[in-house]
Amino acid sequence: MRYLENTEFFQDGGPIYIYTTLGEGLYGVYDDWIKDGLVYEVAEETNGILFALEHRYYGVSRPTSDSSFENLQWLNLLQSLADIARFIAHTKENTYGLENSKVFLWGRGFGGSLAIWARQKYPHLINAAWGSSSPLNAQLEYSQILENMYSTINQIGGPECSQQIADAMQMIEDAVNAGNTTYVESRLGLCYEIDHGNSYDLARLDYSIADSSMLFMQNARYPDIDEKCMIITGFDRPDDPPANALDGFARWWKDDLHPYIDCFDFRNENVVEMYSDSLWDTVSSIDGRRQKLWLQCTQLGLFPITNQGTGHPYGRRFELNFFKRWCADSFGNQIFRDQWWMEDSIALTNEHFGGLNPRTNNILMTHGEMDPMRTLGPSQDLNSQARVITIHLESFSRDLGSPSDVLDYPHLLEVKGQIREQILIWVQPDGPPPPETTIPPIQPGI
To answer: I need a surface site. Which of 74, 75, 370, 385 has the fewest CB within 10 A?
Structure first.
């Protein structure tokens, strides 16, 4: 397992700060948050040492010869948590001055989920943990993400913007039904003509539009959404209004969001072929897409099914069977198409960790009000030592950065101050020790 280390502030006995990831960026792990940010500043204040851990199977942490179905069995959450525990034990045993140091874990997204779950599973090793925008409730289907996204667009961008998007998606649907999609292909910059009889290509097209929109919304700030809605509605260019709703949507989705992509490959067979390659030095493995899909298909789920378009306009085609087939084709095993296998496998994650109630203490969970995945975490404190903070008008993990009077809204500054104070309480030398507990056995992977 590769890890990164920053010792610039460390003095003997200082706290251990560990940033946990689940495949961030193209290379599995990076040093951004151990060289800058809120926890970095707390480490300076407390003479701590900082680490960033690379998750197994990502980056260069490759425990097997390839990522075939058989070899991916060890890419599972319980093994991942055992990696964290072993790293902590090894570091304390082999680094002078860390023998009695407090241990604090933090991460964003699923990396933050790992931090929370590690605190739950190994409280004798980990004193406290913070998950920023971290989903805790595993579930096979998660249609609410599309509804959350569209609701935020309507609230911030206004009804004109949300209606323009709905009208654009309806234009695509009408063109497909009429068998005349030449304008759609041209305006969206598609690489191929649409095969009107290929249900999986049509589902892939709808999903690609929705997925890239979700990624933007997850990372956007309030002004970003307002600005992009100005593009979609044409308010940014009153002298050159959009020709129609699809043209307005394409001005954002194609021209502004993806300006450097020559054309969009929406063919399902081409996408699946990329995900199916089990060699390490391929696009889908280097950037972690194949590994992420494996975890979704086996333990995390959260597939954004359309739910027949209820509460959003992003089509009706990428239903559960679309994702089951994607899993089966990508990993070359039809077990994913079994009626209950994926649902039962993913349900085990909540049995292990408690879903929305992870049954532990000394944890902090923060969520951005605009993050479309916010409903996968608890919305209120679980107990006095398991706090939840929802950050007004913020999206995914805006609280990780250093406090800034210039860049941060007042409420975000206030929350960062609360996070800092809570970490300081947890890592102070005279703070309460972690509860005595028997070391749980490391369970085998699925």
So the answer is: 385
How far is 204 from 265, CA to CA, in rounded Å?
A: 10
Position 30 confidence tier, pLDDT thresholds 50, 70, 90? confident
Q: Are 418 and 99 in contact (CB under 8 A)?
A: no
Kindly report, residue by residue over 204-244, the tens digit of the pLDDT. 999 999 999 999 999 999 999 999 999 999 999 999 999 99
Ranges assigned E (strand) in 123-251: 128-132, 139-141
415 vs 30: CA distance, rounded Å: 25
* pLDDT tens-digit map of 144-195: 999 999 999 999 999 999 999 999 999 999 999 999 999 999 999 999 999 9
Cβ-proximal residues to 407 (8 Å cutoff; 6+ apart), any chain: 401
Burial zone of 151 (CB within 10 Å; 0-12 exposed, 13-18 middle, 19+ buried) = middle
d(CA 396, CA 399): 8
Phi, psi of 210 (to 5 degrees): -65, -40
Per-chain mean pLDDT for the chain:
93
| The token pair that represents 212 in the structure block | 């890239």
* Multiple choice CATH, 140-345, 1.20.120.980, 1.10.1740.10, 2.40.50.150, 3.40.50.970: 1.20.120.980
What burial class does residue 38 get, using C-beta atoms within 10 Å of its C-beta: 0-12 exposed, 13-18 middle, 19+ buried?
buried
The amino acid at residue 129 is: A
Name the CATH superfamily housing domain 3-136+356-427: Alpha/Beta hydrolase fold, catalytic domain (3.40.50.1820)
Helix axes 144-156, 199-219, angle to 10 degrees: 50
> Is the distance from CB of 242 to CB of 161 less than 8 angstroms?
no
Give CA–CA dist 95/382, Å, rounded.
Answer: 35
Whether the pLDDT of residue 439 is over 60: the answer is no
**Interacting residues of 351 by C-beta distance below 8 A, sequence separation 6+:** none
CATH 3.40.50.1820 positions along the chain are 3-136+356-427
CB neighbours (10 Å) of residue 128? 26
- Report CA Rg, the chain: 23
Where in the chain is CATH 1.20.120.980? 140-345
Buried b (16+ CB within 10 A) or exposed e, 348-386: bbbebbbbbebebbbbbbbbbebbbbbbbbbeeebeeeb
Q: How many CB atoms lie within 10 A of CB 71?
A: 15
